[in-house]
Design a protein that fits this description.
heterodimer, A: about 130 residues, mainly beta, OB fold (Dihydrolipoamide Acetyltransferase, E2P), 2 domains, six-stranded mixed sheet, three-stranded antiparallel sheet, 9 strands, about 40% strand, B: about 400 residues, alpha/beta, Peroxisomal Thiolase, Chain A, domain 1, two-stranded antiparallel ribbon, about 30% helix, about 15% strand, globular, binds zinc ion, Thiolase (chain B), Thiolase-like (chain B), Thiolase_C_2 (chain B), ChsH2_C (chain A)
């Protein structure tokens, strides 16, 4: 096969600080996770592109390990029309809400290398101090 | 041959569980599979010598049919190792019916075993390279629970489903389990107990989650013609349907609508029946949200109304629609891939052999399997003689 290996290209682009996805030249679908063929139309001409990193929380769960702080696991619908699993940082996990607008950033020291995380957009989910 | 030609063409003639619960560190999954196979064949008046079609899946064993055939001394002329998680065995039933009616085999053995409970803590779990890079693992979901938790959270957000309604599912399962001597969890359980249990992955508590037990099961299938000469009342396969749309939960198009909408439509069309004709439902309740989603997607209530539907004991003993009369994966047994047990329980109920939990006049039952993360959905419609 020619062209960059999808997963390697993805991790390189995340490490460079972007939110990568692919776009199908045939049907213009956003494609994620990375592939060598478009799951919408079967076309093989996938171009690497970059999400602006803005999205909406589609669903959310809070995990509370016995030995660590609670954290959220969310599904985010990016505005470019693809969905990914992630986590919302910078606010308490219990304050993450479905429908909340979020913005991506790359966390360099993720548990298994650089990863994309999200922060709540201004006015979303920040409770006023009591 | 059209799908309708499968209706009533084959029948389940033997079913059995292996030892369930906790079998101890010296036992292996294949032994439970073999024990169940022997018992199901004995019930059918057959032996391993009669089996010429083998259908099996065992977690962590990539060549399970080869292992099982060697172990049982079977030399199948037709083998199917379809592995779609917990729905595999309902899928095997569909495939067995196709194989039998096309003449590829005469006697099909569907078999499963697992020592999931005894495996924990003795380092026997198989680990291997991931099939694909994961785009989820970096966020530390606790799988499979978090996948189902995300579906539950979305269902609550979209339809107003409540944690109390989820808890009703667990309580109904427990009330059935208390009527089943083989059930693993038989202590009384209340909605308050479920709500107060440790939150594992919100909104699901530990009591919204299935058990982890050991266990195996087997189902023997043959042609309707041959079934007529065997000792037990045949339980006919009236319809079957399969569908899957995703593997990873983050790729599920709509977390509130499963592929069971399609699998059940296919099964009902083949059977020529609808949900209004069904006397009881045995479905794969790995988590409390499953029961709500599947009752909706199998057509027993409208989308979004599953929470209301399960409330007030409607699916519990004495309710309008008996669901998971063995106690389900939540309270009876759950060795990791539960899908063979709905077939076993539906068969027993149709035969009238379910003891204290037997429901009157069961002619048509739905058995529904789920695999992966709400991924693979397989529906079977089973019926007794009066359904033909
Ligand atoms: Zn395309």
């Amino acid at each position: 096969m020619t062209g960059p290996a999808p997963h390697r290209e993805y991790t390189d682009r995340v490490a460079a600080g972007t939110v990568p996805c692919q776009t199908c030249d045939g049907c213009l679908s956003a494609v994620f996770p990375p592939r060598v063929i478009c799951p919408s139309c079967g076309g093989a001409d996938l171009r690497w592109s970059e999400s602006a990193g803005l999205g909406t929380v589609y669903s959310a769960s809070v995990l509370s390990p016995r030995d660590a702080d609670p954290y959220s696991v969310v599904l985010v619908d990016l505005d470019e029309r693809f969905r990914m699993m992630s986590t919302v940082v910078d606010i308490p996990a219990r304050d993450v809400r479905i429908g909340m607008r979020v913005r991506a950033r790359v966390e360099r020291d993720g548990p298994s290398g650089p990863r994309i995380v999200f922060t709540a957009e201004e006015g979303e989910g920040r409770h006023e101090p009591a | 041959m059209s799908p309708r030609d499968l209706r009533g063409a084959t029948a389940i003639v033997g079913v059995a569980e292996s030892d369930l619960g906790e079998v101890g560190p010296d036992r292996y999954a294949i032994e439970l599979a073999a024990q169940a196979a022997g018992a199901a064949l004995a019930e059918a008046g057959l032996t391993t010598r009669d089996v010429d079609g083998l259908f099996c899946a065992i977690a962590g064993r990539g060549m399970a049919p080869l292992d099982v055939a060697e172990y049982l001394g079977i030399r199948p002329r037709y083998t199917d190792g379809t592995m779609v998680g917990g729905s595999s065995f309902v899928s095997h039933l569909h495939h067995a019916a196709l194989a039998i009616t096309s003449g590829a085999c005469d006697v099909a053995l569907i078999v499963y075993g697992s020592t999931a409970r005894s495996d924990s803590g003795r380092g026997r779990l198989a680990t291997g390279p991931p099939e694909l890079p994961s785009y989820e693992a970096a966020y530390r979901p606790r799988m499979p629970i978090t996948g189902y938790a995300l579906a539950a959270a979305r269902h609550m957000h979209q339809f107003g489903t409540t944690r109390t309604q989820l808890a009703e599912v667990a309580v109904a399962a427990r009330r059935w389990a208390r009527l089943n001597p083989k059930a693993f969890a038989r202590d009384p359980l209340t909605v308050e107990d479920v709500l107060a249990a440790r939150m594992v992955s919100s909104p699901l508590t530990s009591l919204d989650c299935c058990l982890v037990t050991d266990g195996g099961g087997a189902v023997v299938v043959t042609s309707a013609a041959r079934a007529a000469d065997l000792p037990r009342p045949p339980v006919y396969l009236l319809g079957a349907g399969e569908a899957h749309w995703h593997r990873a939960i983050s790729q599920m198009p709509d977390l509130t609508v499963t592929a069971a909408t399609e699998s059940s439509a296919r099964a009902y069309a083949m059977a020529g029946v609808g949900p209004e004709d069904v006397d009881m439902v045995q479905l794969y309740d790995a988590f409390t949200i499953n029961t709500i989603l599947f009752l909706e997607d199998l057509g027993f209530c409208a989308k979004g109304e599953g929470g209301d539907f399960v409330s007030g004991g409607r699916i519990a003993p004495g309710g309008d629609l008996p669901v998971n009369t063995n106690g389900g994966g939540l309270s009876y047994c759950h060795p990791g891939m539960y899908g063979i047990f709905p077939l076993i329980e539906a068969t027993r109920q149709i035969r009238g052999e379910a003891g204290m939990r037997q429901q009157p006049g069961v002619t048509i039952a739905v058995a529904h399997g789920n695999g992966g993360q709400l991924s693979s959905q397989v529906t079977a419609v089973l019926g007794g003689r009066d359904s033909l």
